[in-house]
């Protein structure tokens, strides 16, 4: 790399470390994951949009999740595919592109939590206050919840990146498979104490509010279900809540794995692979989990396939 020089606005991205023998298999794997993620998530949004029986607050709020997965996959995987087939000295990226990727990467990660929080609120109202559900979960409330989920993420991440952009740069190497806030402020030789403090507060507030609100929600739902003798209510609560909880645990597990591995420099390569998988895996698992576990969506998917089969035959 000593033989290569780059303009000040161009950075050298480490990319995903793969051997020459595994480059094409890795490329094909990530390409298949990306195609599946896009088809599955766009398909779910289209299905909910076209099927009138799914025009309910629960499914409308759920549309935020596949939309966020599309953002997360698009900002991450195409760049990875390019870097896999590119030699290390040619994996350059402009500073502006790097900031944009970092912004959308953090928005995706933050919105994964905020969307699941508003979905948990919907389940709480539906199960704990069923008689008031229609008056509480109006179209206006659904719009407000969706806007708050995205708005909070955009504002918090905007401040996070704003504190980093203000710094001058004395380095040009990004030692990560993709651009994120930590990689960007490490390019500076200035004091990054404020960046570290805000990043820590941001992470703690996000995880504490996320874990706290969802734990409290499920505790109240569990109390209602245990005190209720309505078997149909309990069955519906178990079906919808188990799907939501499984998706949340996947997001939480991926996030905690990356945070824990950050504390162990010896596992730097493992952390980098985990950070990629932590962003990629949920985007393709979420539509599978919701598509197979949610009765109404599963029935509609089967109906679509039956209609297509009838037209072909």
How would you describe this structure to a colleague?
A 3-stranded mixed sheet has the order 2-1-3. The mean pLDDT is 87. It is globular and about 65 Å long. With 313 residues, it is mostly helical. Helix 1 runs antiparallel to helix 3. It contains 11 helices and 3 strands, in the order E-H-H-H-E-H-H-H-E-H-H-H-H-H. It holds the Pfam family 7tm_4. This is G-protein coupled receptors family 1 profile domain-containing protein. It is a multi-pass membrane protein.
Fold topology:
Elements: E1 10-13, H1 23-50, H2 57-62, H3 64-84, E2 92-94, H4 95-128, H5 133-136, H6 139-165, E3 173-174, H7 181-185, H8 193-227, H9 231-262, H10 268-293, H11 295-312
Parallel strand pairs: 1-3
Antiparallel strand pairs: 1-2
Helix pairs in contact: 1-3, 1-10, 3-4, 3-10, 4-6, 4-8, 4-9, 6-8, 8-9, 9-10, 10-11
